[in-house]
Structure of Ig-like domain-containing protein:
Amino acid sequence: MKGLPQVQPFSFSSNIKIGEKISMVCNAQKGDPPYVIKWLKDGIYLEKNVDINIRIVTNDVTSTIFFDPVNSNSGGNYTCEMKNKHGQDSYTALFNIKAPPEWVAVPHDLTALEGGSATLQCQAKGSPMPHVTWISEDHKILSNSSTVALSPIERVHAGKYRCTADNGLGPPLQHTVTLTVHCE
């Protein structure tokens, strides 16, 4: 059909960071105006959304989405949907943001009985997802994951353990905990 809209492909930059201000324009590559243009994030229609700090400005032929500023909830699949009297078209682009690590669960000191068990946990988020490492006070790597399970607990397990979460953006997160072992 001659007047059917066709959305011009668009893409987000791959190095956008939290705090930056960006915009993306949805234009028709083909078709007859006027258009009804809507934006969707992850398949849900967008209006002004406080969680992702957006503003949308639309007229009969184009629509611009403004992120002011980009925050940790801004990432996702963004679709521009365009309709006219002849039909509709849409185009979707992935918006990946870069975010330094943040704690989801800060590790805490533990006390365990000799012969029992203990689990050290450290959870962080970011984009890309941070790499989490547990290191003992004698600098041995215990785990390259968010959890270290110690069982059965022995006296030699008592001491300090450091969790590090790093994704290459900003300084790595680090937290040291103490494991106390009580003997029966």
In short: The mean pLDDT is 91.
